[in-house]
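Q: Fold this one first, please.
A: Sequence and structure below.
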Amino acid sequence: MSGRHNLAQFQADAVASMASTMRGVARDIAARPDDARTIARQAGTILLQAPTGSGKTLMLGRALEAVTGGLPEPVVWFWFAPFAGLVSQTREGLAAQCPALRLRDLAVDREALTARDGDVFVQTWASVAASNKDSRKVRQARESALSLDAMLETLRERGFRIGVVIDEAHIAFRSATEATNFYLNVLQPDLTLLATATPNDERLEEFAKRAGLASPWRIEVSRRRAVEAGLNKHGLMLGIVRFDAEVEKLIDLETAALTAGWTQHGTLKARLAERGIGLTPLMLVQVEDQAPGEVDPVERVKARLIEIGVPESTIAIHTSGQPDANFHTLAYDPSREVLVFKMAVATGFDAPRAWTLVSVRPNRGKDFGMQVVGRIMRVHPAVRPIHGQDAMLDRGYVFLTDADVQQGLDAAARELDAVQNSIKGITDQLAVIDYAANPPKPA
């Protein structure tokens, strides 16, 4: 990530709206400190709904920057990423794009006396609100550091307000009794920013109900605006690999889907070279969880990739069982052309050079459309100068062996289309093709 990004107009509008709302709530709390908890629950929650790839982290970070030094009382922020693998990605993004914020690490730094306005701690819920060893360490005092609970108490005594940012909020409270209790009883935030690509999600509604929060102030970004700004691809091509029952006995559908995806990957690679764009595309391959007594699907798929001609050195693997220590840099490593995963990269993984996805995982419902497919809808900065000028590069490509997964995409699109001027769907240009009968032709 190089240089401070200029905000697209829709991003600037969202930042201004979030900052304005936070200023109003902070003024009310400063004027009526005895009513701070009531004000926070009734008016202190803001929900940013924006499509995958629209720069949610950037907008949230700039909103925090916009109010740093400008509120009646200083604020220390606690930022929660959904998975450990995204903590480094978030920290690096904030460090590069939001220099007015000071990033701190709860694991090694819980000093309240040196706190200043605009401090940001980035972590996962599991690191603070789960019954595991690491969480217990953070929540317990030691000779050289306060416990997190004591740190929060000291911050409040020193006149600080507490802010919380929850990225991918629909995931954070999926089964979140401990997280909700920690949010309400320990953090007790004065300001809360929620971000999601999933509108009207029942998990968020259930969390708000349990937490006694009023409906959050919603800031909605349409996919159209993200496309017009060159941040989202124009459309999606969905190829379903299937054959007649008799033919299926002779042909392995998984190998056929991987072959179709690798062929499309090669076509895209050639098109980028033809356009003079020095960029190596990335193909994502999603596999199922390993069943007891069954062959590891990761190894099975890797072997098949090698069989169809994918060089082994270009294949990366990242799953909870086989985590890649350099996971957050995979998206920028041109020596890696294929990334095999289960669900670990489905949310928040920033992979702007990904164009192609092959999924051999069973139907995941609407989350498959909203989250997994969303990984290939970003537009790489190197392609933005010709955004809208090349039909092939303006689309993402998905290959499936199970036609039922299409229903998940359709359900996602229907739900999203129901929200006016909000996310219009993963794409409003979805072409569904029976790949075996009518393979897509290069654009």
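Q: Good. Now the second chain.
A: Here it is, same layout.
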Amino acid sequence: MVEPTLHPVCQNRNDWSDDEFRACLRTWLADHYPKEWRQTDRRPFLRLRGDDLRACMRLLNDHGWRAPAWPREFGGMGLGFRKQWIYQQEWERAGGARTVEPGETHLAPTLFRYGTAQQRAGLLPRILRCDDLWVQGYSEPGAGSDLASLCTRAVREGEHFIVNGQKIWTTQAAESSHIFALVRTGQFPKKQQGISFLLIDLKSPGVRIRPIVNLAGDDELCEVFFDDVRVPLGNLVGELDQGWQVAKSLLGHERLWLGSPAMAARALGIAERLVSEAGLASDLGVTDRLAKLQADLHDYRTLYAQVCNRVADHDADPGPAASMLKIYISELLQRIVQFSIDAAAEHGGQTGDVRIGDLLTDLHWSYMMARPTTIYAGCNEVLRDLLAKSVLQLAPAR
């Protein structure tokens, strides 16, 4: 496979020291990453969508900064975990927008392990160039946290599967071209059996997408309906009825990136500015709450670094630590944003831009963006149950 065209400064980056790699990436981001794609006080959790997301991924690909975790033989950067961590740190330091691109982070690793040579050859280059934008089709009405209860069905008919059913909370489906979905293809005693992993073109006849407008005014979440959608048999990834095992192996180190302190750190920076601009620095009640949040984030950063260092030093899976990190940082983020709402007094209930001294921000939007963090990527209640069973060895309550 032909290697991507690399930015001249960054040739042989895998042979560089960590410090050289960090400096190289920092320079590239300063020189090439557009300001309009950077997070600001007004939009601290900015996420790129649609055409902006495609343009960003193509920019990275053109300069050799796409797919840091992919093996080089598949067109990625082939970085070890420590350099992936540096990549994440520098992206966050530069204020790079959040990107949700499941084709790179979810589907590709699945194809590396379970895909056929034909699937890898046909799909991976298109993912790198962002010719195809993929979304994840797992959750359904009545089968969210209990994913094994899904009802979307695929029945074989000749050389196709006929798919009927519905997916929900499908992020960015309206702007995407394809979906990888879990569908039921058989009935077995255990409900985790009889599920298959299927690739579906969202432009296929019978596919209908309906955006869901949330309380922040965004419509990135969608419902996806399948009505007698014909999907070629060659779009099955892995063995028939073995999709549960495929899906379980799908996430790698991406689970650790979900625990990154970056969003909470950006929210805390806004909270600190708000306290100063609102003239609350002498209010001991306010500063006491702020100091506790600062201490909690400091401690969490130390814990996060310890987990990442352990993974890097021992080439280990994060295991239950990934769930623990996700629980803590999502709830800390919510506490920080709630503090800002409270400290803003009458401005805390406003929607849209709010100016407090020299600070211009949208507290309502930030609040609404922070609320679902305890739900997506495994809701915290379910993760706590898993930790209770796998770490504490607690028996289920009766």
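Q: Anything worth noting on the second one?
A: Residues 274 and 344 are 7 Å apart (CA to CA).
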